[in-house]
Structures are given as C-alpha cells and as structure tokens.
Specification:
single chain, 303 residues, alpha+beta, Aminopeptidase, 2 domains, twelve-stranded mixed β-sheet, 9 helices, 35% helix
Length: 303
C-alpha cells in the first residue's frame, strides 16, 4: 500500500497543492491495525494498484478516498476505480443500519464517477476547487463590519454551531452534508475541523469570529494549512439575519491579510456550482476556478 499512497500524495500536491501525507499517516496506521474498512486492488503480485476506504457512523456511511495508480493505462485505472467504488457502495447499502451515504470524489483520472454512482441511485452535485493568490489586491474596503471581529475562540463553538445550522437550513449544501442538519452535527463538524487534519491543519491565527454585543457568534471563518505556503478555508458562515452586511467579506479580508503576514502564497476552498450566489461572491473576492469534484448523496428513504 505504501508505494501507491506515496504516488497518490504526489498527485494531491500536483493537483491541489495539498500535502495529503498527513492524512495518509493516519490511514496507514488504521490499515496496519486492520481498522480501516475498504478494498484494495492487486494485479499479479503484492503491489497494490488501487484502494478505497469508507466509514460507517451510526446511520451514515461515508466513502473517503478512492485512488488507482497512474502508472497503468488510463482505462485500466478507471476500471479499477469503478470496481472499488462499486464494492464500497454495495457494502454500505447492504447494511440496513445505513440510511444515508455521502461521497466527495476528486477526479484524479479525469473520471467523474457519474455512471457508477447513478447506477446505485445516488444524486450528483458538481463542486469546484477555487484558488486565490495571496498578496494581490486584498481590498481594504472590506475591513469594516457592524460587529466586532475577534480571534478564533473554541469556547464559542457551541453557539457558532447553532448559528451554522441556522445559516444552512435552506441552503443547497444542506442536501450535500449531513453535518449541517442539526446544531449537534455542526458542533461535531467544527470541533473536527480544529482538532483533526482531514481538511488541513487548523490555523488558529488565521481564523476569526464576528460577535454581537452579547458575545454571540454571528459569523466566522475557519482556516487551515494544507502544505507549505498553501492554506484552505474549509468553513465560512454568517448568520442569515446578518448576511449582506459585509461580515463575510471582512472576515475573508482579515484572513487573507493574516495569511500574507504568515508567509502563505495561496488560499483555496470548495464551492457547489449550483450555489451561483456564493460562486459569484468568491469570484469577486479574487478566487479563480480550479479542479472540479463531485459530491454524491444516497438516501435510503428515497429508494
């Protein structure tokens, strides 16, 4: 598995400037302890040519990464990926405890996975990986806000989670991520962002909250480090009642200025293509489209 994962890490760095080795070290530990559910493809020897892993958490299944070696012809890699994904899907769907399955798939092989997921009644959402250079035209006009901006305060995660649930209640991403469905889910999600490296290593110094006169969060931005010089925003949100008042722009501007001072060169994030309002807002903030990825959702109640 190690040579395959080392190859995958190089592709992550080339395509997304993301040091995926941090996550892979955790996956390898789980693999060696036989605690990582998934499948691997071998051909004529002990060298792995592809793998997929997945998790089941109570009633939700999640398909994590799926990767096949690029040392083989492209059609071979796509065939391996489709077979591995199919095995993961059927394994989760066959578990009657699982009522929902989520997957976020990066098209490393120019493969959009649409056919294999639609075969098993998944709904697809197109998403974009956006990138912005740091140090260019960080607009000073976005620095003002009617509320107070403070450094990230993890003691305020619980009220921030309540705000997050409210901001996503009628949002397209509510359909994509169960993490947004309840305040409790949002709290677990936010705590994961600041304690686990799945979306990069949390950068407290570049993460901020916007609070009202009572000290309640009305907006925030979470920033993480994905490699040397490259940062990511895995989560940014503003309470519905405070949207349109410059809070998000002020938080983003402050984050960018802090990252510049810390020596970072680029900032990335992911947005759902159908969310045209957010996509246009990010473009105004200087982000440009990068690689495309797909979110796939399956609900047992709909099938």
């Amino acid at each position: 598995m190690l040579p395959l994962m080392e190859e995958e890490a190089r592709v992550w760095m080339e395509d997304f400037s993301w040091d995926y080795s941090v996550v892979q070290q955790i996956l390898l530990c789980l693999f060696r302890e036989k605690m990582l559910p998934g499948y691997a493809a071998f051909s004529g020897g002990k060298q792995a040519e592809g793998y997929v892993y997945f998790f089941a958490n109570q009633t939700k299944g999640s398909i994590g990464a799926c990767y096949a070696t690029q040392t083989k012809p492209l059609e071979n890699a796509r065939e391996i990926v489709d077979r591995l994904v199919e095995l993961a899907i059927t394994r989760l769907q066959d578990s009657l405890d699982i009522s929902r399955i989520e997957a976020q798939m990066f098209a490393f092989h120019g493969h959009d996975y649409k056919r294999i997921f639609e075969k098993y009644d998944f709904r697809r959402y197109s998403r974009l990986y956006l990138v912005r250079d740091i140090g260019t035209d960080i607009a000073e006009k976005y620095t003002s806000t009617p509320l107070k901006i403070i450094p990230w305060d993890s003691t305020l995660i619980e009220p921030a989670a309540v705000m997050t649930a409210a901001s996503y209640r009628d949002h397209l991403d509510y359909e994509i991520l169960e993490d947004y469905h309840t305040p409790a889910n949002c709290e677990n999600y936010l705590r994961g962002l600041v304690t686990k490296p799945g979306c990069g290593v949390f950068l407290r110094d570049a993460s901020f909250m916007c609070i009202d006169e009572y000290g309640i969060p009305r907006g925030y931005v979470v920033c993480s480090r994905i490699s040397d010089g490259c940062a990511m925003i895995p989560q940014v949100a503003t309470h519905p009642a405070w949207q349109g008042r410059g809070i998000g722009a002020a938080l983003m501007s402050l984050c960018l200025r802090k990252l510049k001072a810390m020596g970072f060169n680029s900032l990335s994030l992911v947005v759902t293509v159908e969310n045209s309002h957010a996509l246009e807002w990010y473009r105004r903030m200087g982000f440009r489209p990068g690689k495309e990825l797909s979110a796939f959702i399956w609900n047992r109640a709909n099938n």
